[in-house]
Amino acid sequence: MFDDVRDLYNATIIDRGRRPHHMRRLDQFDATAKGDNPMCGDRVQVWVKYGPDGTISDTGFDARGCEISKASADLMVEAVAGQTAEDTKRLFAAFRTMAQTGACPDCAAAMEPLRLLASVHEYPSRVKCATLPWHALIAALDGGGRATSE
Amino acid sequence: MNDMAPTLDIQRIRADFPILTQTVRGKPLVFLDSAASAQKPRAVIDAMVGAMETQYANVHRGLHWMSERTTDAYEAARDAAARLLNAGDRHEIVFVRNSTEAINLVANSYGRGILKPGQAVLISGMEHHSNIVPWQMLRDSHGTLLRVAPVTDAGELDIEAYEKLLADGRVGLVAITHMSNVLGTYTPAERLIKLAHAHGAKVLLDGSQAVVHRRVDVQALDADFYAFTGHKLYGPTGIGVLYGKRELLEAMPPWMGGGEMISSVSYERSTWAEVPHKFEAGTPAILEGIGLRAAIEYVESVGYDAIAAHEASLIDHALARMSAIPGVTIIGRAQDRGGVVSFTLDRAHAHDVATLLDRNGIAVRAGHHCAEPLMHRFGLESTARASFGIYTTHAEIDTLADTLVKVREFFA
Ligand SMILES: Cc1ncc(COP(=O)(O)O)c(C=O)c1O
User: Fold this and answer.
1) Domain B10-31+303-410: CATH architecture, name and number where available
2) How far does B348 lie from chain A, in Å, by closest CA?
3) Which of its termini does chain B have fewer beta carbons within 10 Å around, N or C?
4) What is the pLDDT of residues B26-68, one digit of tens each?
5) Are the beta carbons of B407 and A2 separated by less than 8 Å?
6) Every domain of chain B and the residues it spans
7) What is the pTM of this model?
8) What is this model's ipTM?
């Protein structure tokens, strides 16, 4: 019955949604921000630590929400490791475009693991689930506070 | 249809709702989201289109034929709403945009105009945000207090606690749902109103859900205010009703100013129109009013006895089928309940459940249902919710249950 949803709910997404590798609060961090999606009640908090060169050295998150938002947060952590804030913002822009359209224009190598979420564009009401952790991350990079995916 | 027999001919009813023949992703639409907004019968569609095609002008202000006819059609909606709620007087029916606006009207007019700072507004722990936030805003701007009567584990109002919260006599207004949009619980309105009146408080019932499923008699209840929204009652969006006892409405100041609501205007002062027009500033939702009348007449033609009996059997069926599915937890087990079933599934978040159900043509809602404090009361962030309408069938509930079993297998 659900064969066609395997494009989004593929094995990796389900596994990451259920047992995220990076769902943890960082004890030491340089920036943090919360994100919430008031439409559906999903919440996420992201913590970031920078390395000496200013790139992201570690990211952790805590999330209450669906498999898509947790899997997205988990993959995001890996995608932004070692990236500068500028690179991360570019990556987010590309990710958002991919989530909305399915296409990944000038896809950087860092986008590769995120492609697993590309078919979320076929589920318009779920796009915000996938982008929510990114909104929180960008808010953290911009100095903290709150973000929403509205 | 025979008025005496509380049955309805479900196939005939379904034939009245054109949208129900639609397919979704190649599957027949199984629309289980009527508590968010209900589908519209042909009678409503025809009434609105017919008005636009044959009989439309602004109301209450034209001296010409079209305006007079349109005014009659629009005002007939007021009579229909008065009849629906058994209001004693058609002037007690104020047209608003929706329940949210009705509650805001009471908060801004009765709240600021009649309640005194230091008096309390008492709500319950199972309110929709639209019956929470206006009272917080009133508290913050006007100095009233906000009290919340708790909900039991079964999802019923804790009556003892409710009575205690009334005991000191400070509560000026009780604003409480007549039926929860999350738990399906009916509150014991008559008893709540008696208790409130005994302690000197007026009562506003949020009837957004209740009026869809059950006959409401504001006089028998002795309700001071009653709010409902047209789009959940098989009518159009953009129109709702606030019933208020006439002496209360007359004592209340207007909320919004403008055309329609005045008797005379000069730069020094203006005087207000009689109720209900005092509360109806600006050109009203004319077509929506006409549509609402058609919706009310449609519901009346089916009859509340038949509707209530049909829905009671749907709920029994749904609770039996869904309780039998391992991993499904039903939130709220009230004795007296209407056609709403909120549930969680052990293996998947409500959004993921809703997305998969949608793949089989089933529309349910997932999230906090605009009732975050209630969700937190049950330690939840979100649930999935199936809600039933006049056109819902037992077979649709079977489709839901069978699909839920498969959803659970999918997330094994
Ligand atoms: C119990 C309850 N109250 C109030 C509302 C608000 O209705 P509306 O959005 O039409 O104002 C709803 C519906 O969403 C509801 O279920």
Assistant:
1) Alpha-Beta Complex (3.90)
2) 8
3) C
4) 999 999 999 999 999 999 999 999 999 999 999 987 789 999 9
5) yes
6) 10-31+303-410, 45-301
7) 0.93
8) 0.89
